[in-house]
Amino acid sequence: xxxxxxxxxxxxxxxxxxxxxxxxxxxxxxxxxxxxxxxxxxxxxxxxxxxxxxxxxxxxxxxxxxxxxxxxxxxxxxxxxxxxxxxxxxxxxxxxxxxxxxxxxxxxxxxxxxxxxxxxxxxxxxxxxxxxxxxxxxxxxxxxxxxxxxxxxxxxxxxxxxxxxxxxxxxxxxxxxxxxxxxxxxxxxxxxxxxxxxxxxxxxxxxxxxxxxxx
Length: 215
Prior knowledge:
This protein is of the alpha/beta class.
């Protein structure tokens, strides 16, 4: 297979119920598509079937139903109260979420390329988890993606290894001004541990490393 540089990144993040992925249920999915210069691509005409409440400044943000009889863990209660509330107030099915993610991708970059090597690359933090859940639950979305992943967590591991271990300077993803400096187009209307926020924070993190690698 020819080795070509990607034209687009699909910044993807999920929130889910359990670190055991075999048992986990998706409760939120978010997608921000950028070019390789990390500039968000937003379609001129949003696909009409996507509810307006799921469309954000830079991308798509969808909440899913909480599983019946599921008891949120302390982490969910402490860090994801807004996500849990949104799931209870306005949730959509997996099938709807999959169709809307696929439609958003098509609206941003066109129909899937015939060659998988020419499709957008899935990107994020610890994105193998998101890829695993998407492969299981979001097949139409997955059909539109490259076979490679870009994981900002990998850059973080290397940065810590080469620049001072735990004492190394890192992007503070809780600091909105630092995020905006790294990723000026960021829409920070959500908070950390919301998938829409986290997808953009991952993009900002890659931009942060790029700027320092060039220096």
